[in-house]
Amino acid sequence: MHSVEIKDLDLSFGAVKVLQGLNLDIHDGEFLVLLGASGCGKSTLLNCIAGLLEATDGQIFIKNENVTWKEPSERGIGMVFQSYALYPQMTVEGNLSFGLKNARVPKDEIARRVARAAEILRIEPLLKRKPGALSGGQRQRVAIGRALVRDVDVFLFDEPLSNLDAKLRTDLRVEIKRLHQQLGNTIIYVTHDQVEAMTLADRIAIMKGGAIQQLASPSEIYNRPRNKYVADFIGSPAMNFFEGVLDGGTFRVGDLSFSTEGYEFEKAPSGPAFMGIRPEHVATGDSATAQPIQLESTVELVEPMGSDTLVWATVAGERFRIRVDGQTEIRARDPIRIGFSAAQASFFDAASELRM
Fold first, then answer.
1. Is the pLDDT at 8 greater than 90, yes or no?
2. Are the C-beta atoms of 80 and 144 separated by less than 8 Å?
3. φ, ψ at 43 (rounded to 5°)
4. Which parts of the sequence belong to the ABC transporter domain (predicted)?
5. How many separate domains does the chain show?
6. Which of 78, 166, 233, 352 has the fewest CB atoms within 10 Å around its CB?
7. 306, pLDDT greater than 80
8. What kind and span of H or E run contains 112?
9. What DSSP designation does 56 have?
10. In sequence order, what DSSP letters do the residues of 94-105 get, joined into one string?
11. What is the CATH number of the domain that holds 218?
12. CA–CA separation, 119 vs 128, rounded Å?
């Protein structure tokens, strides 16, 4: 069953098209992440689903009900914004119950819902405090609780962790995933942070220019990106790319030739193409000698990152990134042997940039 359906959705601001013929089906109980760079249309799409923006064309269904022209309060959704938007003069308990009081929910039902949300989010000791006495992470929990007390089927999260420091983001990311597993509600979550997307989502919709580039599981998007944009966007550090020519079982880049053995093409490959290989799929040193493609280069830059180290080199005139174990002794200007297999690469047509 589909919890949310979006059909041929368009949104324009004057002559500027922000969303273009967008179609999206979100399953009941699914955690779907809208991911993309700033300006790609992800928050705009979320605001259309919430009813905060009026679509130019198309339809939006929530639980099989057409809500395209309904008010936000009539859509059966709970929304968590990037800013906490808490009432500073009210206690946590007051913030959680305020919307329910306005909706004339009975007092005993309000108390039950507030107690349940506080227990789930582990904020019971904070109920008598005001927002000014809370940390950023605690305020965001309260903001989530305010949506939670509405007892709706669909929750919308608009970059809720972007104002927090790195450790708090990690902690609250775990809390949000735990919350979804516990409640089983449908969640649509907007972020530009690919780590959040990969760790939270059942499926990810990668957006660019108001359109969805790929909609799939995190594993599918990471291992089989649909086009070069998705391949370049997902992964930190980004995928390495070579621009060359495919000719049967060979990929040529300048004076270099790589075997494409092990890669499953849909049809016999030929013509201009891009080959991409992720930094973590590159072997170095003695391990590189076991790989079908082997190259020699010189280390230009080393970035120690604790558990691993990022090494920069130049291959075929292109910057090339390699992820190695953090205990590897390696320095700038050291010679380095690189090895990888086409079986772990991705090939994209140069004209369409679609996966081959």
1. yes
2. yes
3. -70, -35
4. 4-234
5. 2
6. 166
7. yes
8. helix 107-121
9. S
10. HHHHHHHHHTT-
11. 3.40.50.300
12. 14
Asked if pLDDT for residue 163 goes beyond 80, the answer is no
In a domain, 355, yes or no: no
The reply to whether 354 falls in a domain is no
Which residue is it, tokens 């973590």?
Answer: 280
Q: Please write down the long-range contacts of 254-258, taking CB distance under 8 Å and 24 or more positions apart.
A: 254/316, 254/317, 256/295, 256/316, 258/293, 258/342
Distance CA 351, CA 356 (A): 11
Whether pTM exceeds 0.85: yes
Q: Which two tokens stand for residue 316?
A: 């075929």
Secondary structure letter of residue 54 according to DSSP:
-
Reply yes or no on whether the pLDDT at 1 is more than 70: no
Q: Per the structure block, which two tokens stand in for 212?
A: 């969805």
pLDDT digits (tens, 9 = 90+) for 253-281: 988 888 898 898 877 788 999 999 999 99
Tokens of 307: 């558990």
Whether residue 356 lies inside any domain: the answer is no
Q: Which two tokens stand for residue 118?
A: 């506080």
- Based on the fold, state whether residues 255 and 215 are members of the same structural domain: no
pLDDT tens digits, 185-238: 999 999 999 999 999 999 999 999 999 999 999 999 999 999 999 999 998 888
- Which domain does 267 fall in, by range? 237-349
φ/ψ (deg, to 5) at 70: -85, 155
Which of 303, 312, 309 lies closest to 336 in space, CA to CA? 312
Alpha-carbon separation of residue 151 from 76, 117, 185 (angstroms): 9, 10, 10
**Cβ within 8 Å of residue 44, ≥6 positions away:** 11, 18, 19, 53, 210
Domain membership of residue 242 (yes or no) is yes
Whether residues 326 and 214 share a domain: the answer is no
Q: Name the DSSP class of 72.
A: G
Single out the residue of 356, 269, 253, 226 nearest to residue 314, CA to CA: 253
